[in-house]
Amino acid sequence: MNTLPVVPFNIKPLIVGAKTGPHPAGFGEQTKMQFQNGYSPSIVCGEMFYSNGVDTYEVAIINGDGNLVDLFNVGDTVMGYLSANEVFDIMKKVALS
């Protein structure tokens, strides 16, 4: 898995915690972070996800209660096959929501 480049500076102050490691399902990699507003984007990469396992990512947004949410009204709680730039755009929107 290619790791995402450095988090954009303009949202760093809004992050309260972040961790990267193997996905709990036992395959792929996951990065989770929590923003001050209580939302946590879960970013995964691996062939068993909506990702090519190399340079596209699957993103889900988790609210403060631990539930997946369709924060942007896209019709699903999971967004797939996203480029790193698209992931950063989502992170910024989540951080500022």
What would you note in describing this structure?
The structure is a single chain. With 97 residues, the chain is mostly beta strands. The protein has one domain (9-95). The protein has one helix and six strands; from the N terminus they run ββββββα. It has one helix at residues 84-95, and strands at residues 15-22, 29-35, 40-45, 57-62, 68-69, 78-82. Strands 1, 2, 3, 4, 5 and 6 form a six-stranded antiparallel beta sheet that branches. β2 and β3 form a beta hairpin. The radius of gyration is 12 Å and the shape is globular. The protein starts with 14 loop residues before the first strand and ends with a helix.
In short:
It contains 1 helix and 6 strands; from the N terminus they run ββββββα. It is mainly β. The protein has one domain.
Query: What proportion of the residues is helical, as a percent range?
Result: 10-25%
Number of self-contained structural domains:
1
Indicate the mean pLDDT. Answer: 83
Task: Report Rg.
Answer: 12 Å
Main pleated sheet: 6 strands, antiparallel
